[in-house]
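dude i think i finally got it to work??
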Amino acid sequence: MTDEHKFDDIRPYRDDEIPAAMQRIVSDPLFPQVAQYVYPDRTVGEVRDILLGCSDIYGFQTTVMKQVNEQVIARTTDGLTFSGVERLDPSKRYLFISNHRDIVLDSCLLMYILHTNGHSIGEITFGSNLMKGQMVIDIGKSNKMFRVDRGGNPRELYTTSVHLSEYIRYAITEKKESVWIAQRNGRTKDGNDRTDQGLIKMLGMSGGKDRVKALADLNIAPVSVSYEWESCDILKALELYASRDGKPYIKKPGEDLNSILTGITQPKGRVHIEICEPLTASDLSAIPADYADARFRHAVAELMDRRICGGYRLFPNAYIAHDLRSGISEYAGLYTNEQRDAFMARLHELDRYGSDPALREIFLGIYANPVDSH
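look at this
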């Protein structure tokens, strides 16, 4: 058994820490704005009482976070659909590895789907760069989010990677909690979802010498998230444009928070989450045993990518962007003139940021690249 205090620096809150966290949240100057969004038909005082009535994590998640998800779905989407829940064994805990398009919603919507379909709500990784401000920390850690340290020198990165690997294994095998983690550091901004081999390496660090068993014990379930209107699409295009030709991109103060809020409030159209076929010991054993470790990790990442990209729900915008970029109406039968006009209107919003064709190409790639990956 693992010493439960070993992970106090990164773990989510425990039940006994929830009442104090609720007190801090309702005392925060930003609380009235958050309360008004989440509970538009309630007074701030009523929302305050709701939070103060949460005495444990389950109460906070099934009362407050369930309401958050339902408000996001109702007010910013044209419907949330899902498939693949039947692939999960309710008695097992899984490591959900997902493509990453929205800072918050990718994981929160998955947990909402799991909860409403009789599965336990899992823990969620949360980058240390995003844990800024006590309210964000309190909401995150009350929602079973745990910190992933970013940055540091090579020695520090190795140490934090081992620590993270040990915690994820501890959460799944001993705490009996499922875990969500993105397939790479940071969101995919160009539409090309690819699993970072470094993630596979990190997960194996805590599993011993048998590399197949080390991953199989985590019950890895790939997840594919598709948005009709890409979360923060213009912001992503501008960031890629600013960092083209290898230029370093330096985030402005508050930029991460702006991306969180934009992702939550921006209209997303239809949203689909596909829980792909979990990786089995047989899947992993099929990778040739004589592969060096690096080649083995590459093969695992490719297997993940095939399932995630194969699980896309491709909406008309993806085909419109692909046709615009190629100059050929290859997919014209898969969208209407009205849908094309709506996409063109969104594309023309880039004009306020400049007329360089490179910016337009980057924006089109965000939507078009999943067609090729699929």
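Residues 110 and 273 are 7 Å apart (CA to CA).
im so relieved honestly
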